[in-house]
Amino acid sequence: MAKIVILTGAGISAESGIRTFRASDGLWEEHRIEEVATPEGWSRDPALVARFYNARRAAAAAAAPNAAHRALAALEADGRHEVLVVTQNVDDLHERGGSRNVIHMHGTLTGALCHACAHRWPAPPEMAPNDPCPACGARATRPDIVWFGEMPYRMEEIWEALRAADLFVSIGTSGNVYPAAGFVADAGHAGVPTLELNLEPSAGTRLFDAARHGPATEVVPAWVREMLA
Fold it and tell me: Which of 81, 94, 106, 115 is labelled catalytic?
């Protein structure tokens, strides 16, 4: 059974209506990245950060999985390949699209995290910094999101999966955000074949063995059909 590790980024959810941020102008939904996606921003104005992610949570809940999400779920469900989806996205569209083996390396909008004791629990639709932690009672609730300057989740597990893979596929990523941007080099050093599926060539496209470019809802289902043929 071939082991396939698939990295997904904002490009796979864009066609579901989930807006992406662009670091070139430093803005995300009209906010400075530093205000809403850093530990320092949360320390300065936790109420603003909570409102920002409440809006993101509502937007993600209103979105629906697209053909690319469903295609990856079909690849996993087929059973002829061992599929691991490692996503940079904080929405749950992979899971709602049918994928079961998913790692959210940047956290998830559906999770809440206690800043005091690190306890995690399902996030309510509306979260506030003074919501009490179910475990310790501290009023230090934040979104379970990995912000700039923080270490992504489950990195050792991801690196082990990359080294043991038979194929690494990157879908809808810019190739600008590390450590995920380094996955293609890590896979290449381990002798793992690599494939990029992206709207346009990423910053690291030259590092891939092969690349196909176009909308995720077109190139991902087409690739999956070939894998299942």
Answer: 106
